[in-house]
Amino acid sequence: MEDLTTIDAHQSHPRNAFKAGVFSLVFPGLGQVYNGQIKKGILYFALSYLIPVIFAVTRWATSFTGMVIFMTIAISFLLCMVMDAIRNAKRQKFYILKPYNKWYNYILIAIFILTMNFVFDIKKMIGIQSYIAQTTANTPTILEGDWIITDTKAYEKNTPKTGDLVTFTKEDGQLFMYRIVGLPKDTISLKDNIVSINNKLSKSKFIADRNIEGIDFSELEETFPNGHSHRIYKSKEEFDDGMMNMNDFVVPTDSIFVLGDSRDHAFDSRYIGCIGKNQITGQIKYSYWGKTGFKRMNIKF
Fold first, then answer.
1. What is the dihedral of CA 129, 278, 49, 81, to 10 degrees?
2. Which of 20, 178, 228, 285 could form an SS bridge with 258, CB 3.0 to 4.6 Å?
3. pTM of the model
4. Torsion angle of C-alpha atoms 24, 30, 31, 33, degrees rounded to 10
């Protein structure tokens, strides 16, 4: 009769801790399935979607604090799942393969998870998008190199407001980010780069003189008639008088007029025309990093 210990040793397939960890890192729950813990694998997979669903419903990630909480939970969950897979694999010194422990089953599970990730885009689910500001068109508010977060669902139920900073795309697919100064049927004028809306001139207050890369600017605080305040730059040297002063432009129906906060260095509605609400891709909420590091963290817009 053949020795039972020999049979067991021959049938044993110890789990590889490295494989288990990588499986769970790339495909949530697959490392647990590899370890023979299929119920735990399903639980981890479900939780990997439940977390973003909660943040999608609450809209917490549209604030800096909410985003920090979300990233902390997501990273902690991922580390917990990977460490669980590694720890349990190391314990499996003697492991009898389950019927589902086949390489083709792992591939099928991986394909299923990839398909779910494609169908349920987490960023779209949560309703945020990250960009890096590529120009100085919105200084001093948004600096070149700022890492910003936009709320892609901001206008699903609400209408854009004067003063909102938005991202939008034109017909050629190019991305822009500017401030809304005119809504449909508003009459917009500019007097020395200060906005007038429906014949009400915005208030402006001098803040300081600035020199940016050899160009002299005046920094002002501009307050729209609706009370929205923000900082703008005006070049001290005459840049384009035809764009610094503009008389009574009526914003067409279903259109929006936008301007850059760096009034003399922005390729905005004065040049590219008005935009449609359907072209807006999100409302800019805050920055979480920039060229100066932590100084540009949690800057609300």
1. -10
2. 178
3. 0.85
4. 160
